[in-house]
Amino acid sequence: MGMLRADIESLEQNGITGIALTRLGDPDVIPLWFGEGDLVTPDFIRDAAKQALDEGYTFYSNPRGRPELREAIKHYLARLYQVDVDVERITVPGSSMLAITMAAQMTLNKGEHGLIVTPHWPNIDRAFQVTGASFSTVRQRWSEGGWQLALDDLRAAVRPNTRALFLNSPCNPTGWVMTREGQRELLDFCRQRGIVIIADEVYHRTVYDAEAAPSFLEVASDDDPVIVVNGFSKAFTMTGWRLGWMVTPRRYATQMAVLAECFNTGAPSFVQRAGVVALEQGDALVARLRAQYRAGRDAVMEILAAHPRIELATPEGAFYAFPRIPGLRSSRAFVEGVLAEENVGLAPGYTFGPGSDEHFRLCFAQSPERLRIALERIVRYIDSHGL
Ligand SMILES: Cc1ncc(COP(=O)(O)O)c(C=O)c1O
After folding, report:
1. What does pTM read for this prediction?
2. Residue 111 Cα, ligand 1 centroid: separation in angstroms?
3. Are 190 and 227 spatial neighbours (Cβ–Cβ below 8 Å)?
4. Which tens digit of pLDDT belongs to each residue from 63-83?
5. Which domains does the chain carry?
6. Does the structure show a pLDDT above 90 at 250?
7. CA 327 to centroid of ligand 1, rounded, Å
8. Which atom belonging to ligand 1 lies closest to the Cα atom of 121?
9. Atom 13 (ligand 1): residue with closest C-alpha?
10. Rounded CA gap, 267 and 153, in Å?
11. Pocket test for ligand 1, best of 125, 198, 202 (most atoms within 8 A of CB)
């Protein structure tokens, strides 16, 4: 004891991993607990990585990312959002999770405060906690029309020493998608207050009525206090590749080069080569995934949302449902029960921040047949336990 910093010593495992580790890899379980489906990354991306290995892309490269990948990201963003992002703003440190950790480290001092829009992915807490800063949450509001963030709630939650604000749109777990107008208003406020927005846009392609969700890159100028985090995991079924990027204000270019070097000295070279191919040739894949996720969402709405004990609005983006069972005593006991009796892996609501213990989260990116079986089992559990 006493060897570790107190902020590290007090870290607790998040509730998703906590339950998943108990039955990980068990073939009897239909796993809806993690943020991924059951499709292997397609051939055209795997082939690019194999080819890169055969060609000898096994060395260190630029810690901020290989030049051809940073260029490819620039072009991808231009195509998707009609924005001209200077490559000096783009860094590819490794995974999006690493980018979030770097963003937190870059912005929060000990004694300062970070604000997180909740319900939220629990790893964000941990990334903020290890900075030594304090953090609190501001909650999206639920109505039958879906989840929304009220700017007034956010204004009220900001403290004099708030330095960073984390938000994730499209949102894991709620499916909330921030509007462009909402982004503009929030950015105005954060400019005035000197708060850096850490905008997690990893689900940018998982929206159902557009090619991509609105991005802060469309409303922010080169030197606005915005760090946009994005990645390959969700858009291109590449969760195991650990590849993501961040777009930072222009004036941070030198510091980004230094930071990238000491965090991971760049992502694996051959993985980056595959990343270029995913960005350049991935549109058909994105369209296929969107169709599958839409079918998954339909099944969730048909089977779960129709249930009298469940409150659930149609998720606008991402591939999660975050249903509420009003009066549920413990989301943890609930997901443990569903796992033990029905062999379906869910994530407990409590781990997504304060106010979520009547919820559970499921990922509907699984193939439709397995998903339907899982949903029916969840309903059977709720009914047989009189919840
Ligand atoms: C909101 C959010 N941000 C970031 C990530 C991390 O993505 P990556 O696999 O690129 O680290 C996830 C993964 O589930 C996520 O849900």
Report:
1. 0.97
2. 27
3. no
4. 999 999 999 999 999 999 999
5. 6-41+284-382 (3.90.1150.10), 43-281 (3.40.640.10)
6. yes
7. 30
8. 1
9. 35
10. 38
11. 202
